Amino acid sequence: MEIHNGDSYNDNLLPCPFCGEKPIWYLKGNAEAVGKRRVITIKCPMCGTTQETAVLKLPTEMGCLMAVAKWNMRQVKKENK
Ligand SMILES: [Zn+2]
User: Fold this and answer.
1) What pTM was computed for the model?
2) Ligand 1 center to residue 41 CA distance, Å?
């Protein structure tokens, strides 16, 4: 899995829990070098819902999985309410 700023192709990522729009990825920091301060942002372009996941020393791929899992958990939480 790979992130390019502005991508919204990730099929594992569920739609925005609030408006159903497909969210967009952003990776802040260095995509290549592990050990730098890096943050993966998943943002809904429609309602502006934003989730930031600090991936720090994790390989980018691991960080992606973490960010996706976090976003999808939020979705499930809302559905259970
Ligand atoms: Zn939204």
Assistant:
1) 0.74
2) 14
